Amino acid sequence: MKAQFPEEQSETGEFARQEDEFRDWVSADGSTAFPAEAGRYHLYVSLACPWASRTIIARKVMRLEDAIGMTVADPVRDERGWAFRDGPGYSTDPVNGFAFLSEAYVATDPNFRGRVTVPVLWDKQTRRIVNNSEDDICRMFNDTFASSGNGAHWFPPGLAAEQQKLSAFVYENINNGVYRAGFATRQQPYERACRRLFKALDEIEERLVTNRYLFGGRIVETDWRLFCTLVRFDAVYYVHFKCNLRRIVDYPNLQGYLMDLYQQPGIADTVNFDHIKRHYYMTHDEINPTRIVPIGPEMDLTRPHGRERLNAQASA
Ligand SMILES: N[C@@H](CCC(=O)N[C@@H](CS)C(=O)NCC(=O)O)C(=O)O
Fold this sequence. Notes:
Elements: E1 26-27, E2 34-35, E3 41-45, H1 50-61, E4 69-72, H2 102-108, E5 120-123, E6 128-131, H3 134-143, H4 160-182, H5 187-210, H6 221-240, H7 252-262, H8 273-283, H9 310-315
Parallel strand pairs: 1-2, 3-4
Antiparallel strand pairs: 3-5, 5-6
The protein binds glutathione.
């Protein structure tokens, strides 16, 4: 059996994701080589990717669209990796004229041999990648670029320890959990990842019985991190990654929560099911060799979610 990413596969059939390579920091106080300046940095993303989507949502919610440019790649990848060309919802690269995102990686480190991933935060001045970790990029948008945007707070100081713990839980079991299920090349690792994933979803479902959002009445980074996986779940992970014990629509609280977040201002514009579906079903050809994209499911995330009723409880 062949793995989708052989370099990241253990002998026993587990998917072990590579580490993010570039972790430099943009600072507001001049303490790093990358000062915060509106117009200097550019985000390269795919609307298909759950990790990139979190940075797209941060840029949107924090109103950083004027301060930080963004280019969307073609959702369908071939062996040359992410590419910039014109199509519905994606485009050529107006900043550097890159045909492939790999050019940004090679410009930054000619010896880079890893998998070229989105998101990427690019510095137009030094002409290199500052950072390709979505965790770091969201944190910088929140902290460093606060004065360029609307100062939305995704990391309330009073919550730090608890939030970090829940974010790690969501990452391990859910965000990366679907990939560990989908990219397993043996039965046991697949089953282990899948059971852990659903156990975690069951726990979150309980938490959302009384909490409108994960930490009550306010939306924080952990909510968006969870959203990026939930919104893809029924359309892709349930089928393509074989995460099929239950769908999100089968969980009343998770489904209401998903619709609630989807209906927040500007968010629906960041979700593109055409990109999401074509990316997964047509790019992972070890998993779906025919590259056929399923026609369903029928989904409507714009229905009333009824979760406003939890506001009073949450702030009490
Ligand atoms: N930075 C993320 C991973 C980002 C990532 O893997 N992005 C995927 C798209 S969802 C990608 O760019 N893959 C490129 C490839 O597989 O060639 C993390 O480590 O958690």
